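$ ./design --mode recover --in tokens.txt
reading tokens...
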């Protein structure tokens, strides 16, 4: 199994960096399909010791018909609770790419955001081809695996995710990884025009551990009913994060 990530190499482009340094646009990710796979999963983790296992993207359930994920603009940094995300996916099982919460407590992708003077950071995409879909499996057996189900969309480091699969007897058919690097000291002297005043959770040195509880819905966040693609208010674009890959397309 192979994975390729656009321009995710020795110097990750500024467009993929967090909103503190760049545009917080996720890169395009492609992988070679595995015929027997029932699902795929992706974990994006910073391996630098100072990052304390910061998870930048966690996607525990990807439909086997999907072979790539296009770039997504995550500049909104939605702070959604784990229960709201779980409830939405329960109501919309046709969503093919079910994203979770990253360590910054926001939903979806959170670009590299290493604090300055912390050296070069390695950001690794891990992809797994699984013999069962993790969400479907836990949804069906949530009376048995209640905690595992309710915490499914909380960020998980590579080892914790693999331990969860082992506990559930879900087999990894194949896996691969792809690394990229970012050194905040290499940013242009002029710096980014992005403001740092509203990025309380952007710096990876604010991370205590990979199991930080998810962010609560802020006053600007939407209730779970507004996640519906049929919403009439200004939150309709928020649903793009959920509905880009659905069976209705």
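writing sequence...
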């Amino acid at each position: 199994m192979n994975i390729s990530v656009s321009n995710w190499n020795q110097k990750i482009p500024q467009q993929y960096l967090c909103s503190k340094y760049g545009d917080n646009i996720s890169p395009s990710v492609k992988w070679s399909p595995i015929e027997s796979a029932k699902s795929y999963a992706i974990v994006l983790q910073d391996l630098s010791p100072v990052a304390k296992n910061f998870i930048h993207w966690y996607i525990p359930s990807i439909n086997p018909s999907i072979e790539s994920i296009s770039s997504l603009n995550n500049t909104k940094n939605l702070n959604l609770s784990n229960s709201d995300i779980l409830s939405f996916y329960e109501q919309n099982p046709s969503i093919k790419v079910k994203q979770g919460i990253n360590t910054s407590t926001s939903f979806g992708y959170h670009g590299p955001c290493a604090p300055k003077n912390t050296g070069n950071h390695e950001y690794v995409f891990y992809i797994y081809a699984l013999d069962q879909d993790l969400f479907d499996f836990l949804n069906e057996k949530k009376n048995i695996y209640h905690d595992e189900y309710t915490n499914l969309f909380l960020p998980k480091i590579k080892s914790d995710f693999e331990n969860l699969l082992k506990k559930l007897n879900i087999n990894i058919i194949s896996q691969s990884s792809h690394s990229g690097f970012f050194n905040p000291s290499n940013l242009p002297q002029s710096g980014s025009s992005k403001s740092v005043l509203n990025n309380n959770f952007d710096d990876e040195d604010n991370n205590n551990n990979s199991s930080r509880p998810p962010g609560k819905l802020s006053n600007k966040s939407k209730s779970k009913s507004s996640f519906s693609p049929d919403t009439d208010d200004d939150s309709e674009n928020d649903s793009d994060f959920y509905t880009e890959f659905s069976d209705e397309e």
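exit 0
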